[in-house]
Amino acid sequence: MTKQITTRFAPSPTGYIHIGNVRSAIYPYLIAKQSGGTFILRIEDTDQARYVEGATDLIKSTLQWLGLDWDEGPEVGGPHGPYFQTERLELYHQWARKLIAAGRAYADPTPSETIAAYRAADQAAKIPYLYRNHRPTQTPEWHPGIPLRFKSEPKNYQWQDLVMGDLKTGPEVLDDIVLIKADGLPTYNFAHIIDDLEMGVTHICRGVEYLSSMPNYLALYEALGVERPYFISLPHILAPNGNKKLGKRDGAKSVDLYRQEGILPEAMLNFLACLGWNDGTEQELYTKEELITKFRIDHIQNSGAHFDEVKLLWTNGQWIRRLFDEQGIDQFYPRTIDFWPEVATSAPEEYKKRVLSIIYDRLKTLSDLRAMTDYFFVDPKINLAELTTNKFLKKFSETELGQLLTTSIDALKQLQTWDATSIQNTLNQLLVDTGKKTAELFSLIRISVSFAPFSPALDLTLDVLGRETVLARLGAVRTAILRD
RNA sequence: GGUCUCGUAGUAUAACGGUUAGUACAUCGGGUUUUCAUCCCGACAACGCGGGUUCGACUCCCGCCGAGAUCACCA
Description:
Order of helices and strands: EHEHHEHEEEEHEHEEHHHEHHHHHHHHHH
Structural class: mainly alpha
Strand order of the largest sheet: 3-4-7
Strand content: 5-15%
Shape: elongated
Radius of gyration: 32 Å
Largest sheet: 3 strands, antiparallel
């Protein structure tokens, strides 16, 4: 059995979780779970300017929807709380004082205008801007209202990344990063290290954009005298076009929006997990449980992956069929209740279940129900042009179409029992009697009862619509076409 | 510009020195009594470039080119 792993997802409450960043919740979840370990949710709310009201709730509900239950964090609590960084300030200050005592941190009285001038001057001189080259000579005692900086010691660093492999950098990137801001709140750079340490996080999963900050983090671990955790850098999810990482600016939709559009959480989890990871087999569909057991850190891709919404839709269609077939109509139906067209609102549940059972296999998203099922609930608007211009029907005169409808109505009227098999038998007999081709007769009837671009198999459609409705609609079309 | 990362079909990926470079989505054909979808069958389509190492390189090494990330009192 593998050693128990603790991971975390640590978002800032600055907005919704979108497609581009949700994977950094999924992977750590899978990694923790497969070792029987702990998955922590921590809210990194130290940036007061970017704080968005309600964002935390949105983050929580998105994770819950995906089935990524956290073992420690908001709501559930845990032994390492609190799980909001703004409630952990004393902790950061304690560790900060240790660094000051060790001579590895200093209060920086330099006004921001001066700092900006340093940067501008360095850039003008075409030399790398490093704050440590401008380190103030006189540093006051640290007190609230003044930023605290790390006192860096330039050197080489090497480390292992479980995805990227062995990495190393020179001293150029080490700098006197700000640990605690003037407002008394820690920066991410400092806070996450303290939190991961205090919370017992063994594996840090985060986007590759943090790779360039690694030397500074390594220096911090060293100065703090603590052991490094394992590092797992996740490559970016890229926008469909171009090679830019998918962000809100590029139209990354929120995960919640996909939920509203009828994407199933199973499909979303499956799709995202497999975007940048595979288990080496040709399996395409994974349940959450399968992902947990089969996930392998060393199979995480190390290049970015483009987000392909078409494949998401395909995956979703697969999951709709799979869940329906496995669970049956009664278990599956509740998932669809928010996705029916308005005209179906007052329709009985049993009827909607029958409609669902004949149409589910052509849904890509649950919201397709809205566009595909209207005619089951309300008589469609008769549009004769759809008949007269149909590629199979345009060769017939309106009189001929009317007669064909009459013959069909008469035959269907004769039916003793109204079920799919009987209907199919009658339709087959009609083909023989009229001498028409399947495409001709079936198109006529199908269009006449639905006036929809597509519908389920004709026998099933007529069965669900019911005798009264079918005969009434065919009659109405006949009347219209003959009068015309 | 400095530092770092990445590079197999349109997209996601398999291959871990020897294969006709496999699979899925997409696309294009065909089949399943009409349509749409499912399902099935088939087709198209890729190792960024150049050097090495080796009997042999998508796989190892070097260079180049291309793409990206990061250089905040944001995370």
